Amino acid sequence: MKKILYIFVAVLLSLNAYASNGKVLVVVSAADHLTLRNGGVVESGYFVSELSETLRQLEANGYEFDIATPKGKTPVIDGFGLQMYFYKASVVSNWPQYALNPKIKAEEERLKDIATATKYFGRLKFANRYANDEVSAFLDDVEYIMEQQQLTEKPLLSLESLTQSKSLEKYDGIYIPGGHAPKIDLLFSEELGSILTYFHETQKPTAIICHAPIVLLTAMEGIYNPFIPLSEEQKNNFIYKGYNITLGNKSEELILENFLYLKGSRLEYYVAEKAREAGLKVSNFRVPSMSQVIEDRELVTGANPSSVYSLADKFIYKLQKRQ
Fold it and tell me: What is the CA radius of gyration of the chain?
């Protein structure tokens, strides 16, 4: 408990405003469930590891940011993304010196992620808080600290308020974290389609990670539906047609389905397959859970939680090049 409280305080005190080098729009899913192939529904949310590290790096490099969600709702952290499996994989992928004993570094990174989310969202919401006994015990401590600090939810921008170009001109780039949640709300957002089209047309840096690159399909003509075949006209007019990207691959999805997440249940579809159908060039050649980042024109995509460190670096480099 003392270690958790120390990290919370250290992160909250260290993230201070600097002279601004620019401003970034951060779009986060507010979904709290996931529909399965058999029609069942399970809890879901966004992966906080894919958000918090990028926020820290943006602020450390002098960037301000606004966070927007559908209808300004507080987003929901997926407890499955807090499992040590993901954090240890990130440590091994990004800090080889910790490969023989990644646990201490993994715990530190997880604590920093929760503390960062607390700074910007206030009172946090969780799904799958009983992902396993270790996550449950960790979140019990987090809940206790939030109660002691008497935290309340902080207001956020609504995605729907940002569809006009004049509302977007102040932003130098856009970032969208993943988890399965974006498949539920962001993928069907006409507003997000308009926003992404603006960033594409102005060639402003666009960074998206894990399952979230599927939301590129919101920029299709009409409202995208993953269960209806795309017309040739939609494919030909797709503004990201031919872009090279990476995102969660099928082998990683199968691990989630069979061992880590869904315990034998099946997802309605796999994001990599739908991205290819739309005309995106998807690269998934990697060891599962190892970092992979691909850059193509204004777009930078990361494959999984382990990729957030490299993705944030490339995103910030692209932002700095525009200055």
Answer: 19
From the list 116, 111, 113, the residue with the least C-alpha distance to 14 is: 116
* CA quadruple 129, 2, 306, 156: dihedral sign: positive
Per-residue pLDDT reduced to its tens digit, 199-243: 999 999 999 999 999 999 999 998 899 999 999 999 999 999 999
Coarse DSSP helix, strand, coil percentages of the chain, rounded to the nearest 5 percent:
50, 15, 35
222 backbone φψ class: left, alpha, beta (φ>0; ψ -120 to 50):
left
- What are the pLDDT digits (tens) for 49-59? 999 999 999 99
Burial class (CB in 10 A: 0-12, 13-18, 19+), 304: buried
Q: Are 208 and 175 in contact (CB under 8 A)?
A: yes
How far apart, in whole angstroms, are the C-alpha atoms of residue 218 and residue 298? 17
Number of residues that make up the chain: 323
